[in-house]
Amino acid sequence: MELSVTYLNRKFLHPFVLASAPPTATGEMIARAFDAGWAGAVVKTLIQEPVRNLHNRFASNRLAGRIYGFENIELLSELTPEEWFRDIRALKRGYPDRILIGSIMGTGADKEPWLELALGCQEAGADLIELNFSCPHGYPEKGQGAAIGQNPVYSATITRWLKEDPRLRLPVIPKLTAAVTDISYIGEAAAEAGADGLSAINTIPSFMGFDLETLEPRPSVAGYSAAGGYSGPGIKPIALRCVADLLRSPGLPVMACGGISSGTDAAEFILLGAPVMHICTAVMLEGYGVLDRMREELASFMERHGFTSIDAFLGLGLGRLRDFHQLDTSYRVRAVIDPDTCTGCGACYVSCRDAGYQAITADGETVTVDEARCQGCSLCVHVCPTGAVQLLEC
């Protein structure tokens, strides 16, 4: 089973790399991740003035004991650029087959900081340069982060600064935010300015809510909080939509990030056409060892479908996405219930009665579908706890 992939002429041992995030906060951490088998890492975003992060900067939402949503109000790197350049050199010496991506954020209106950070990463041995145009908190109010990725002129201007400087030879990859009306519009501006590829998405701007015992916001910093970045499995559908949009227009190679917590999640992004996955929250919750499970799940998916390489299904699903008006209005399905697996719980009956077409009736433990009333909306399929309800094409 061949799991290696190529992105912008760089070979990755497999699709999984660490995102620019807490798991890549230091060179020592990245070295341990490489020892655990990770194919690459995006360093915690370099900035000329290192940050001081807040205490108690994370919050989470749970469902049935499982974290499905995570929030952070963490900023960028706490290390100086010089410390990072030293660590990048050491990592490339120690792990020459791993891909190191330098993530940078300069001052929005000043060319020189962007160039200095990019050239410093290049000299230290980084393989690619990622431009942080997407940090959703802490920096937009300063005209940086998501404030750049939400503005096509800013995105294009900074990209062009780097691409037009003859000293910078590495590919330049803007990381875009989903907090826009049309991410393709921003991607097209970056592409016209010379971007080699794109990365999407970062976390989603959010407020996690209140602790209803203390009445303090979450996370609480001395009783107060601020909007942060939402991540975890709950944002995967948003990331899939953004990656699909960018692959269709402007069509540059995309590295995917956002809600990827399993090998099957990765398979969905590969089907769209993104060969590389940036992982953060899954590592924060399970550690670097989560990689083993993710690789096994991806390999199992490939074996089940007879794919012997990532290239065999890269982009295979993108053509199945259409604009809404292009969908077939003559397509018809209806619900059918398997009496052998139906427990008579009534979940489908209640949902269809109160939010559907009143096509399901329940008489004790006997549940039936009125074919004449069923509109094939599929609500009953989703609420059934045993999988007894299926759709039949008609």
**What is the mean pLDDT?**
96
Task: Give the DSSP E fraction (strand runs of 2 or more residues).
Answer: 15-25%
| Main sheet: strand order | 3-4-7-8-9-10-13-14
Radius of gyration in whole Å, from Cα? 23 Å
**Residue windows where pLDDT falls under 50 for at least 5 positions:** none
DSSP helical segment count = 12
- The percent of residues in helical segments reads 25-40%
Query: What is the CATH superfamily classification of the largest domain?
Result: Aldolase class I
> So what's the oligomer here?
single chain
In CATH's first tier, which class of the largest domain applies?
Alpha Beta
CATH topology of the largest domain: TIM Barrel
Overall, the morphology is globular
What is the ordering of alpha helices and beta strands? Answer: EEEHEEEHEHEHHEHEEEHEHEHHEHEEHE
Largest sheet properties: 8 strands, parallel, barrel
When the domains are counted, the total is: 2
Intertermini distance? 39 Å
What would your notes on this structure say?
The protein is of the alpha/beta class and 394 residues long. It has 2 domains: 316 residues, Aldolase class I (TIM Barrel), CATH 3.20.20; 66 residues, 2-Layer Sandwich (Alpha-Beta Plaits). It is built from 12 helices and 18 strands. The strands form 5 sheets. The chain has an 8-stranded parallel beta barrel with strand order 3-4-7-8-9-10-13-14, surrounded by 8 helices. A 4-stranded antiparallel beta sheet has the order 5-6-12-11, with no helix packed on it. Strands 1-2 form a two-stranded antiparallel ribbon. The mean pLDDT is 96.
